[in-house]
Amino acid sequence: AEANVGVVGLAAMGASLSRNLARHGYKVAVYNRTYARTENFMKNYASEGEFFPSKTVREFVDSLEKPRVAIIMVKAGQPTDDVIEELAAVMDKGDIIVDAGNAYFKDTMRREKAMAARGIHFVGCGVSGGEEGALLGPSMMPGGSDESWERLKPMFEAIAAKASDGTPCVAHIGPNGAGHFVKMVHNGIEYADMQLIAESYDLMRRGLKMTPAEIGDVFEQWNKTDLDSYLVEITAEVLHKVDDKTGMPLVDVIVDHAGMKGTGTWTVQTALSLEVPVTGIAEAVFARGLSGQTELREKAQADPFDGPDPKFDVDDEQRDDFIEHIRKALYASKIVAYAQGFNEIAAAGKHYGWDIDMAEVARIWRAGCIIRAKFLDRISEAFESGTADISLLFAPYFKSGIQEDEPSWRAVVEQAVRHGIPCPVFSSSLAYFDGLRSKRLPASLIQGQRDLFGAHTYQRVDEPGVFHTLWTEPGKPEIKEK
Ligand code: 6PG
After folding, report:
1. Does ligand 1 have an atom closer than 6 angstroms to the CB of 130?
2. Per the confidence metrics, is the pTM higher than 0.90?
3. CB 141 within 8 A of CB 364
4. N or C terminus of the chain: which is more exposed, having fewer CB within 10 Å?
5. How far apart are CA 263 and CA 364, in angstroms?
């Protein structure tokens, strides 16, 4: 037993994580189901640190110092269950299995319970930052027991990304599935953020008739504002990229079907069951869904509907002002998406009994992860000060930001609607904001309808209790027992 930690699964993410550990002085046992991949890994990276390659799970486990730490980075679902079982069969009480993949948090809860019964710590750990992050420093969101965290903390703090103030982007999120839950919502926010950027691009492309390179320049400028973030930065890079083969902007050569692996969908499904409206994330998932509806979209081209000219009523002198409106609309919508995501985390925290520190979540998202952004400093300050407890939208910094950007937000959605360019996350975020502002919502009418067709009852504004109207005799309310 010589290795300090082991990694199972040497595909892109697992290989990068192993190298990251080794570069920080850890002796790393590595195992992959197909040994050829392990050999390949050794051939390429053995010089970067001390690795212990194993051919079997038994050999891998035997090479680890106790209490053992085995990090698994394999496909979510059955492959993860298989690896856990193989490891647990040869591990001892007190050993730790870390699942660093994108697991569904309920699977993590189930696995944690099953492993705890066998005396093994199971830690579902969200890891964000892609391959590069895994190598150079990801943002890490571990769940699991306090005891396992004590053991993992120094190692994770060493390999995690460091925020600009030097703090490592890792924190113990909470017990069992809390870490994977927070990673899931991170991905949901990632979907909303990406869709908002894509909508901004589309509005400039079709509405303002700008070229991809010009729009790339705009994103480069935006990256020096409140929007400073990794996703805005890479957007500029993508838009500036020219295809080698055709000489066209690469974005015009890429098929416009957005893929997804499921975490965004889980975020929305979970939000529905927790009854938290995450409208921005939901619209982002559905927008990807529509992009992939090939048959439907082909039919709409073959048998087209009429619609307005997408060109906005914005002349050349007004163009820069309108671009600024789009930037503000993006910022306001983005705040809504984050606020909704944090509300989902808060609701899950209550529901599952996790004590999640929201300021801490924002802090560990400041570097390493895909949604890293300058304004996460402000988000963590907002949660710290207690002004974001009900919603981030009420924290003074964001409230005044939204208030200032609101006219631009409306101007953008108005033009988009008038000219037929879809911007589902911009417009649904605005609708959420307007819904939130409304003193009275038409939900009263819905309650009336429900009471009429199904005797579902309603509450009154002027009297406590539960009421039902005898609709056949209009106007005669009947008091129902609670
Ligand atoms: C990250 C990412 C990553 C995710 C990809 C792809 O935080 O590093 O969230 O975990 O797998 O972004 O996700 P989709 O294929 O669903 O777009």
Report:
1. yes
2. yes
3. yes
4. C
5. 19
- List phi, psi (to 5°) of 175: -70, 170
Q: How far apart are CA 209 and CA 205, in angstroms?
A: 5
Rounded-to-integer distance, Cα 244 and Cα 199, Å: 26
Between helices 212-222 and 230-240, what is the axis angle to 10°?
Answer: 160
Site to probe by mutation for ligand 1, drawn from 74, 125, 131, 261 as the one with most ligand atoms within 8 Å of Cβ, is 261
CB 323 within 8 A of CB 348: no
> Per DSSP, what are the bridge partners of residue 140?
127, 170
Residue nearest to ligand 1 atom 17, measured at CA: 260
Cα of 284 from ligand 1 centre, angstroms: 14
Q: How far apart are the first and last CA of the chain?
A: 66
Q: What is the CA radius of gyration of the chain?
A: 25
Distance CA 199, CA 193 (A): 10
Distance CA 37, CA 31 (A): 9
Give the separation between CA 38 and CA 10, rounded to whole angstroms. Answer: 7
| 3-class secondary-structure state, position 466 | strand
Which amino acid makes up residue 125?
A: C
DSSP character at residue 206: I
Q: How far apart are CA 241 and CA 364, in angstroms?
A: 31
Residue minimizing CA distance to atom 5 of ligand 1: 130
How far, in Å, CA of 65 to CA of 50, rounded? 14
Determine which helix (DSSP H) or strand (DSSP E) holds 6, and give its type and residue range: strand 5-8
Q: Quick check: CB of 235 below 6 Å from ligand 1?
A: no
Give the model confidence (pLDDT) of 77-115 as tens digits.
Answer: 999 999 999 999 999 999 999 999 999 999 999 999 999
Flag whether the ipTM exceeds 0.90. Answer: yes
Residue pointed to by tokens 């050829």: 36
What's the order of all strands across the beta sheet hosting 5-8?
A: 51-54, 28-31, 5-8, 69-72, 96-99, 121-128, 139-142
